[in-house]
Amino acid sequence: MPADVLNFVGIGEGMTVLEVFAGGGWYTEVLSAAVGPEGMVYSQNAARFQERVGEMAAARAERLGNVEVIYTEGMAIDLPAPADAAFTALNLHDMANRGDEAGLGFLGGIYDALAPGGALGIVDHTGSAGQDNAELHRMEPSKARELLTQAGFVVEAESDILMNAEDDHTLGIRDPSLRFETDRFLIRARKPE
After folding, report:
1. Burial per residue of 151-168, b for 16 or more beta-carbon CB atoms within 10 angstroms, e otherwise
2. CA-CA distance, 133 to 160, in Å (whole number)?
3. Among residues 54, 72, 93, 151, which is most buried (max CB within 10 A)?
4. Domain total for the chain?
5. CATH number, residue 177
6. 71 CB neighbour count, 10 Å cutoff
7. Measured between alpha carbons, how far is 47 from 70 in angstroms, rounded to an integer?
8. Strand pairing report for 184-190 and 114-125
């Protein structure tokens, strides 16, 4: 449901969007189409992933024409101008499960790269209280909201469009029975004006 996700976040034509930890680039394709030829997508990955995804990411950027690939050390993301919006899918849990400092560092880098009033969309695997969410590669939505608020964002809205009631949250995200269709939360937050 990529169009629904991006509509919820408020990403549209002509915008400059930062995709954080773009990985293999599935959402890069979607974001590129959403912002159109007048928009720009900065597809960011950690420098340590450049060897793994660099060639493919460069070819995608050339084909799409409105994507620039960037690699960073840490979460200092230096863009030519602040982004109108940022988006990250299935990444916050990896940082937050290392501790609040890592989660806040991740969100702080995004906050600094956004223009005042810029939106942040977060999709992640839903975890439950009492589970070893770090081991399961999940996180509680309440923890995401807490970290977002501590990082300076205002949480505006949440959506259940990526919810999967058949996922009981006790399985790891790669369990074959889930077939990569975990229960996911979607949050829209905003950097204050």
Report:
1. bebebeeebeebeeeebe
2. 20
3. 93
4. 1
5. 3.40.50.150
6. 15
7. 8
8. antiparallel
pTM of the predicted protein model: 0.93
Contact between residue 12 and residue 84 where contact means Cβ atoms under 8 Å apart: no
Distance CA 65, CA 60 (A): 8
Which pLDDT does position 180 carry in this prediction? 82
Q: Which helix (H) or strand (E) holds 104?
A: helix 100-113
β-strand partners of 41: 17, 67
- Amino acid of residue 179: R
Q: Which residue has the tokens 């293999």?
A: 24
Q: What are the mean pLDDT values of the chain's consecutive 10-residue runs (193 residues total)?
A: 94 97 91 97 91 89 95 88 96 93 94 97 96 94 97 97 93 89 97 97
Sheet with 83-89: list strands edge to edge.
67-72, 40-46, 16-19, 83-89, 114-125, 184-190, 154-159
Domain range enclosing 6: 2-190
pLDDT of residue 9: 97
Backbone phi, psi, residue 184, to 5°: -130, 145
Q: Are 22 and 28 in contact (CB under 8 A)?
A: yes
Tell me the two tokens of residue 29.
Answer: 């394709």
The alpha carbon of 31 is separated from its chain's Cα centroid by a whole number of angstroms, namely 12
Tell me the C-alpha distance between 90 and 161, whole Å.
Answer: 15
